[in-house]
Amino acid sequence: MYVFYEDDGSFKAGNILSETDASLQVESESGKRSKIKRANTLFNFASPDPATLMTQAAATAETLTCSSCGNARRKRSSTPPPWPPTISATPPRPSNKPRC
Fold first, then answer.
1. N or C terminus: which one in the chain shows less Cβ crowding within 10 Å?
2. Residues 6+ apart with CB under 8 A from 45
3. What pairs with residue 10 in β-bridges?
4. Rounded to whole angstroms, what are the CA distances from 2 to 25, 28, 30, 56, 96?
5. Residue-level pLDDT, tens digit, the chain, 100 residues
6. Model confidence pTM above 0.85
7. Which spans in the chain are helix H?
8. Furthest-apart CA pair in the chain: how many Å?
9. 28 CB neighbour count, 10 Å cutoff
Protein backbone atom coordinates (compact mmCIF):
# COMPACT_ATOMS: atom_id res chain seq x y z
CA MET A 1 0.00 0.00 0.00
CA TYR A 2 1.21 3.53 -0.78
CA VAL A 3 0.43 6.99 0.60
CA PHE A 4 0.29 10.49 -0.93
CA TYR A 5 1.23 13.15 1.63
CA GLU A 6 2.49 16.69 2.24
CA ASP A 7 5.92 17.21 3.78
CA ASP A 8 7.77 20.52 4.16
CA GLY A 9 5.49 22.29 1.69
CA SER A 10 5.72 19.73 -1.11
CA PHE A 11 3.69 16.70 -2.07
CA LYS A 12 5.29 13.27 -1.90
CA ALA A 13 4.33 9.63 -2.29
CA GLY A 14 5.86 6.57 -0.67
CA ASN A 15 5.49 2.99 0.44
CA ILE A 16 3.82 2.49 3.84
CA LEU A 17 6.07 0.36 6.06
CA SER A 18 4.02 0.61 9.26
CA GLU A 19 1.21 2.71 10.65
CA THR A 20 -0.41 3.67 13.94
CA ASP A 21 -3.45 5.77 14.75
CA ALA A 22 -1.38 8.98 14.70
CA SER A 23 1.51 8.37 12.28
CA LEU A 24 2.96 6.34 9.42
CA GLN A 25 6.46 5.06 8.66
CA VAL A 26 7.02 5.70 4.93
CA GLU A 27 9.84 4.77 2.54
CA SER A 28 10.47 6.98 -0.49
CA GLU A 29 11.74 5.86 -3.91
CA SER A 30 15.28 6.81 -2.86
CA GLY A 31 15.06 4.52 0.18
CA LYS A 32 14.78 7.32 2.73
CA ARG A 33 12.46 6.46 5.62
CA SER A 34 10.29 9.14 7.20
CA LYS A 35 7.79 9.25 10.02
CA ILE A 36 4.82 11.37 9.00
CA LYS A 37 1.74 12.45 10.89
CA ARG A 38 -1.54 10.99 9.69
CA ALA A 39 -2.93 14.56 9.50
CA ASN A 40 -0.43 15.25 6.66
CA THR A 41 -1.66 12.35 4.51
CA LEU A 42 -4.09 13.04 1.68
CA PHE A 43 -4.94 9.50 0.55
CA ASN A 44 -3.74 5.89 0.43
CA PHE A 45 -3.59 3.94 -2.85
CA ALA A 46 -2.63 0.52 -4.17
CA SER A 47 -1.69 1.43 -7.74
CA PRO A 48 0.07 2.91 -9.62
CA ASP A 49 3.44 2.91 -7.88
CA PRO A 50 4.48 6.24 -6.25
CA ALA A 51 6.93 7.26 -9.00
CA THR A 52 4.27 6.82 -11.70
CA LEU A 53 1.68 8.73 -9.64
CA MET A 54 4.04 11.68 -9.16
CA THR A 55 4.95 11.74 -12.87
CA GLN A 56 1.29 11.70 -13.89
CA ALA A 57 0.43 14.38 -11.30
CA ALA A 58 3.18 16.69 -12.56
CA ALA A 59 2.02 16.28 -16.16
CA THR A 60 -1.60 16.98 -15.20
CA ALA A 61 -0.63 20.02 -13.11
CA GLU A 62 0.95 21.64 -16.18
CA THR A 63 -2.43 21.62 -17.95
CA LEU A 64 -4.46 23.27 -15.17
CA THR A 65 -5.89 26.78 -15.37
CA CYS A 66 -7.52 28.90 -12.69
CA SER A 67 -11.32 28.72 -13.00
CA SER A 68 -11.85 32.21 -11.57
CA CYS A 69 -9.41 34.18 -13.73
CA GLY A 70 -8.32 31.84 -16.53
CA ASN A 71 -4.60 32.16 -15.84
CA ALA A 72 -2.53 29.11 -16.69
CA ARG A 73 -0.47 27.54 -13.93
CA ARG A 74 2.75 29.47 -13.55
CA LYS A 75 5.99 27.55 -13.64
CA ARG A 76 8.20 28.10 -10.65
CA SER A 77 11.24 30.21 -11.29
CA SER A 78 14.58 28.51 -10.74
CA THR A 79 16.05 31.75 -9.41
CA PRO A 80 15.27 32.74 -5.83
CA PRO A 81 13.55 36.06 -5.12
CA PRO A 82 15.83 39.06 -4.49
CA TRP A 83 17.19 39.42 -0.99
CA PRO A 84 16.62 41.55 0.98
CA PRO A 85 13.05 42.06 -0.17
CA THR A 86 12.12 45.56 -1.20
CA ILE A 87 9.76 47.31 1.18
CA SER A 88 7.39 49.92 -0.12
CA ALA A 89 6.67 53.03 1.94
CA THR A 90 3.01 52.81 1.00
CA PRO A 91 1.07 49.59 1.49
CA PRO A 92 -0.39 47.97 -1.62
CA ARG A 93 -4.00 48.79 -2.42
CA PRO A 94 -6.44 45.93 -1.94
CA SER A 95 -7.77 44.41 -5.12
CA ASN A 96 -11.16 42.91 -5.79
CA LYS A 97 -9.60 40.37 -8.14
CA PRO A 98 -9.60 36.77 -6.91
CA ARG A 99 -6.21 35.47 -5.84
CA CYS A 100 -4.85 32.50 -7.77
1. N
2. 1, 2, 3, 4, 53
3. 7
4. 11, 10, 15, 15, 42
5. 999 999 988 999 999 999 999 999 999 988 999 999 999 999 999 999 999 999 999 899 888 877 777 776 666 556 666 666 666 566 666 666 666 6
6. no
7. 50-61
8. 54
9. 15
